[in-house]
Amino acid sequence: MAIIPFLILIFMFNFPPQLAKASELPSAVEKTEKGTLRTYIVHVKQPEGRVSTQSEELKNYHQSFLSIGMTASDNQQRLIYSYQHVISGFAARLTEEEVEAIKKKDGFVSASPERMLRLQTTHTPHFLGLHQEMGVWKESDFGKGVIVGMLDSGVLPNHPSFSGEGMPPPPAKWKGKCEFNASQCNNKLIGAKSFNIAAQTNKGGQGEPPLDDDGHGTHTSSTAAGGFVKNADALGNAKGTAVGMAPQAHLAIYKVGFGPDCPDTDILAGLDVAVLDGVDVISISLGTDIPMPFYQDNIAIGSLAAIQKGIFVSCAAGNSCPFNATLSNEAPWILTVGASTIDRSIKATAKLGNGEQFDGESLFQPGDFPPKLLPLIYAGSNGKPESALCGQGSLKAMILMNPESDGFSTQSDAHVLPATHVSNAAGLKIKAYISSTTTPMATILFKGTVIGDPLAPVVTSFSSRGPNSQSPGILKPDIIGPGVNILAAWPFPLDNNTNSESTFNVISGTSMSCPHLSGIAALLKSSHPYWSPAAIKSAIMTSADLLNVQGKPILDQTLHPADIFATGAGHVNPPKANDPGTVTNVGEATSSYTVDVVLPGVDVIVEPGKLDFSEVNQELTYKVTCSRSATLVTTPYVQGYLEWTSSKHVVRSPISVKFE
């Protein structure tokens, strides 16, 4: 009788769909008698007094560009959105011939086809130095009075993370609406609206409410500004009090994601209304892995308009893995957020027949899994096809191994059967063990939640890297924040015994790190209401940490020091960001800063070498000159940092130099 393998070793290629790897997909097309219709975003000049910018007159102005042989009825059906606040233009279904005709009209600027983008905490606040009795939470009143706008896949409104209990009413400036019923809208969840005209035009369906049918939006929204929820956990792990970064901030939900594809026409419409509604912070965990000029990037264009109106915008850097120039959302005015680990893991250890043990991770921690050794095979050699595909009943458990590019980065997923996700190095040793014996055996020891990883934070392998392909002189990403094994609200049960109204899940991605920074920006805005978006961004970046919890340089997935194109300015430090210093003096009226530069192999002159401030908000300038030194080692980039140090503050800026 043949032995049925109970434990299988397979490769884990990159990361699962819930990470929502950024990609660009073609927009939907529709063939008609007049040709093939596609959705285009058309930029036009401002009416310049000829037309009021009120919505109906503006819509008529935009429809005038469509009077190109269309009937009035056809004209109205083709117009999808009239944008009013973030761009001057509209979205419409057009043929190529109609676009060419529109180009000849006075006031036309540009037209581009719609693009499809993809969707890109119990312990995290403590890891970031947020405490209820002191520090930035207390100083900012937990983000009170700030409105955070989430452009995502919607929200589950009756989740306890979005309870309005203890929340004050929204500020008087709020103009938005909540499309849920009155029992679901409250002083926490003050706004909710769907933008699915383009999405439903592509699908041929009807409109949908802003209810989250994916999970992504509920998770990100609670991460940014969810309230305190005691006794939260995911499948019994990561237990504690779940809370967002700014628990007293208000949330406005703009659903722009319907399934995996998010048309940029809908995203731009969401941005347009968010600006009108009066949000203070916009969080966008969406992106594409195909860089394009900023003038063609509608998130970049819309975000610039928002920032010019005093609204802070943070975006996910993307999940395109640890390769150069793979960033999403590279525009200089956006806070581009990469992902790093926290010091918590949900451990599952692979134990081999020879006694060796290799730590991995898994969210699913079965309490009844037998500790006895089981037959072990490698699916790449002699495994059955149904086992390789994880067919029903074919496996007792799994060991999932990283590809080489993912190195030591692992994460806790809710696998459908007992499993552990191990590093590439561990996987290679397990493979070698299988080859060394005719009867390889193994089991998995489930150890639950473990806190205290001395290497944290580590830049994870999926976090996209710089340099900035569209603006090489601007370093990106800007910052890294928690994005691995993040526990937050979830709209669906993870098992049959879970109440969906109080479900939490642990997932990973730059989509998770972005709302951490959005919430932190809300805290800073509440603590310093007159700070501009640029001042908030500067405070976050110049106060960032370069060292891990051990006081050593932050590492990447190879467990070597991470470079600037992985970390940006470093790991966010909310308490320091709330009192940053910066070259515009936001500290004490009289203060002096001296300069220090670390840039190996480069001669650097900073003029002046000392900055003396005599008043608050005084601005001083300095000049930095770099030249090649005799000790310069040939390398594509030289990286380091410039620090201004006073008796109380350290203001740091990363530097990357490339000599041609």
From TrEMBL:
One GO BP on record is: proteolysis
Domain Inhibitor I9: start-end pairs: 39-120
Q: Which Pfam families match?
A: fn3_6 (PF17766), Inhibitor_I9 (PF05922), Peptidase_S8 (PF00082)
Task: Output the Gene Ontology cellular-component terms.
Answer: extracellular region
> Could you list the residue ranges that cross the membrane?
none
Cite the GO molecular-function annotations of the record: serine-type endopeptidase activity
Q: Where is the active site?
A: D152, H216, S511
> What sequence ranges are listed for the domain Subtilisin-like protease fibronectin type-III?
582-657
Question: Where is it predominantly found?
Answer: secreted
**Peptidase S8/S53 domain boundaries:** 143-546
Q: Where in the cell is it found?
A: Secreted
Swiss-Prot/TrEMBL keywords: Glycoprotein, Hydrolase, Protease, Serine protease, Signal
Q: Which residues form the signal peptide?
A: 1-22
PROSITE patterns attached here? SUBTILASE, SUBTILASE_ASP
Keyword Transmembrane annotated: no
Q: Which Gene3D superfamilies match?
A: 2.60.40.2310, 3.50.30.30, Peptidase S8 propeptide/proteinase inhibitor I9, Peptidase S8/S53 domain
**Region (Disordered), start-end ranges:** 200-224
Question: Entry's CDD domains?
Answer: PA_subtilisin_like, Peptidases_S8_3
- Please report which protein family the annotation says this sequence is part of: Belongs to the peptidase S8 family.
List the protein's name: Inhibitor I9 domain-containing protein
